[in-house]
Structure formats: structure tokens, C-alpha cells
Design goal:
Blueprint: H1 6-18, E1 21-22, H2 23-32, H3 54-57, H4 59-75, E2 82-87, H5 93-102, H6 106-111, E3 112-117, H7 121-131, E4 138-141, E5 152-157, E6 166-171, E7 174-182, E8 188-192, E9 214-217, H8 219-235, E10 237-246, E11 256-259, E12 262-264, E13 274-276, E14 279-280, H9 281-290, E15 294-295, E16 299-300, H10 301-307, H11 310-319, H12 323-337, H13 342-345, E17 346-352
Parallel strand pairs: 2-3, 2-5, 3-4, 5-10, 10-14
Antiparallel strand pairs: 1-7, 6-7, 6-9, 7-8, 10-17, 11-12, 11-13, 15-17, 16-17
Length: 358
């Protein structure tokens, strides 16, 4: 009996028949294959899954995001109708915490229509369970373009890191694209394209790279950022992007796989490991700007959450908690804003239509 996953067997057959595939194709297939893709049939979140996101750490994260969106709505002139959109909503925990935190702003609660954008049937079902207690209509979509036009607030927490990337590697003979191949033992291995990559495809910041250096780009992330920027510019609104990554484009390999809360080889058990890479916020900002939106200063998650009153919220929660819960709450807050934990690795980027301030 083969120890290969069904998707690995499928990939090997495809590569042997049609030739090597790009990292971009490999990542897209592993995450989104309709039958065996990582996100299509399982719940990867939480302690029993492969990773934990900020909303799963503490309600304080979602509450802060909710307050930010309610404030943005007021800055928009408090429109009577606004689409509250979440991209890649996971279990629905972030949306639930946002709705719970903002229900005291009755006009905002009355104005919002919730739109969840997710390709995963399994996660859509989980989101429905999480949100079934809220007295509002919730709409699900596979793509952002399916969401109706109109004033909008868009949340994207750990969404962009899972959109596929391309990797180019510098050699003595120029730039080549990194590929996934099959070796003589029927194992998936990393290789490079037969033909060099045209110089026009290599970003300017990578021009001085040395042999062995890797440049990561993501046309799909840029296209999504541009689409969000266009929606904001045309419809009036604000978006908040939270993800792990770097402020400026740089040379380096950040492509990674996680299984059961541990890093594994990117070719390990395709379809059963989460594949991501660090988000290049400089490139994202260029996409939002190309769409016509205004990009505001990038902040660390630590700086953002402290500015949104996380410490004050922690004190309030601790005041009404027992001794054991007080310790737990403090640990949760530290994980969110700790400089050596999620606080500095994760970044927060606000994007708005041009007439809105910060």
C-alpha cells in the first residue's frame, strides 16, 4: 500500500505525463484541489488542527478589529447599508467576535450585511455553526467579485499568506523558475525550469542578487490587492489586512509547510500540510495603490492592538475573572502582542478609499 497521499499520487501522475509544474501551481493544487486540497475537506484551525490564528488565541483580537471597523464606518459617514466582508474567514471566529463587540453600536449593527468569501465547503459549514446565533443574514461567496457593490468594510486575516507564489532562483546562467519535478524513485523534488526567466519578470529589487538567491513574487496576491483597491475606490470603504510578513521586498525563501503545529518539508504529504509564505507588504501596497485606494502606514500587530485598547480590555476582562482565568487571559494577550511572539512578526495594513483619513 502506498504511503503517498492521494493528491501526491495525482501530482506525480500529472508531472510524469505533462512535465514539471511551478511552485505556484503546486501550492494552488495542494491548497485548493476540489477533492484532495488542504482547505477543501478539513478544519485546519485550533489546537486539534495544524495551526492557530489570532482569533483562535483570544476574543480580544476580534473585538479590536470590530472596533476599528465600526470607527471606519463612522468616518465613512455612517452609511445606512454597508457590506462587512471577510476573506478566508476560517471557522468564523473573527467575524463572531467582531459582531459581538460592535452590537452596542446599534446603527452599525443595523447597517451591516455580512459576506463571507471562502472556497472551502468544510469551513463554510463551520462558519455557519459559529454564526448561527446572530440575528442577521449571512451570505457566502467563492470569490470577492461575487459580493454586491456598495460601501464596504473588508477584513483579511491570514488570507494573503495562503495565495500562491512564484519563486525565481538566480544561477550563474541567469534566473530560472523553481519547479516541482519527479525523480527516478517517483518522489517529488524541487528543480528549476529548462528555460531562463525573461529579465522583465524579475523585480527591480532583486536585480543585484547573487547565485543561489531566491526572489519570491505573487501575481495572485497583487491581483487580489488591486481588486480590493478598485472596490474601495469605487464603492467607498476600508480594508484591514493582518498577516505575517515583511515591510519591504527582499531576497529570500519564505515558502513553508506546517503540519500539527510543526514545520515540515514543503513537499511533505501534499494536501495534508498547510502551505504559505511570508507576505511582502511592499508588493501588496503597490497592488492596492494600482486599484486606486489609499494605503496607510504599516504597523506591527503589537502596535495596532495596543492602540486599539487591548491592554485596557485585558484589565476589564481580568477584573471579572477567577485566578486561573486571569492567568490565561494574560497569556493570551502576551501571545498576541509579545515582541517575540505574534506581536512583531504579524503586521497590520489599513487601506481606504481616498477620501478617508487614517
Amino acid at each position: 500500500m502506498s504511503d503517498k497521499t492521494l493528491l501526491e499520487q495525482q501530482l506525480i501522475a500529472t508531472i510524469k505525463a505533462d512535465g514539471p509544474i511551478t511552485i505556484e501551481q503546486y501550492m494552488a493544487t495542494c491548497l485548493g484541489d476540489p477533492e484532495h486540497g488542504y482547505y477543501m475537506s478539513k478544519d485546519p484551525f485550533g489546537r486539534g488542527g495544524d495551526f492557530i490564528t489570532s482569533p483562535e488565541v483570544s476574543q480580544m483580537f476580534g473585538e479590536a478589529i470590530g472596533v476599528w471597523f465600526a470607527t471606519a464606518w463612522m468616518m465613512m459617514g455612517s452609511p445606512k447599508q454597508v457590506n462587512l466582508i471577510e476573506l478566508g474567514p476560517g471557522r468564523g471566529t473573527l467575524m463572531a467576535d467582531m459582531l459581538r463587540a460592535t452590537k452596542v453600536v446599534q446603527e452599525f449593527a443595523d447597517a451591516i450585511t455580512v459576506h463571507m468569501v471562502d472556497i472551502s465547503p468544510a469551513l463554510r459549514k463551520q462558519q455557519g455553526e459559529t454564526l448561527k446565533g446572530f440575528p442577521l443574514d449571512i451570505h457566502w461567496h467563492q470569490r470577492l467579485e461575487q459580493v454586491p457593490a456598495g460601501p464596504c468594510l473588508i477584513a483579511a486575516n491570514e488570507f494573503f499568506d495562503a495565495l500562491p507564489i512564484k519563486q525565481y532562483i538566480r544561477t550563474e546562467n541567469g534566473w530560472f523558475e523553481r519547479m516541482v519535478e519527479v525523480d527516478e524513485n517517483d518522489q517529488l523534488v524541487l528543480g528549476i525550469s529548462l528555460d531562463p526567466v525573461p529579465a522583465a519578470k524579475i523585480p527591480q529589487w532583486a536585480k543585484d542578487a547573487e547565485p543561489g538567491d531566491i526572489a519570491e513574487v505573487s501575481p495572485q496576491r497583487f491581483a487580489m490587492a488591486e481588486q480590493i483597491g478598485t472596490r474601495l475606490a469605487k464603492n467607498h470603504g476600508a480594508a484591514l489586512i493582518v498577516d505575517y510578513g515583511h515591510a519591504l521586498s527582499f531576497i529570500g525563501d519564505t515558502f513553508q509547510a506546517v503540519s500539527k503545529h510543526k514545520f515540515v518539508d514543503v513537499l511533505y504529504k501534499p494536501g495534508q500540510s498547510d502551505l504559505t509564505s511570508h507576505v511582502d507588504f511592499q508588493a501588496l501596497a503597490e497592488g492596492f495603490t494600482a486599484g486606486g485606494a489609499t494605503v496607510h502606514d504599516l504597523r506591527t500587530q503589537r502596535a495596532f492592538l495596543i492602540a486599539m485598547g487591548l491592554r485596557e480590555r485585558l484589565a476589564m476582562l481580568r477584573k471579572n475573572a477567577g485566578a486561573r482565568d486571569r492567568i490565561m487571559l494574560s497569556k493570551q494577550a502576551d501571545r498576541l502582542i509579545g515582541e517575540k511572539l505574534m506581536g512583531n512578526l504579524f503586521k497590520v495594513l489599513a487601506v481606504t478609499s481616498k477620501e478617508l483619513g487614517t
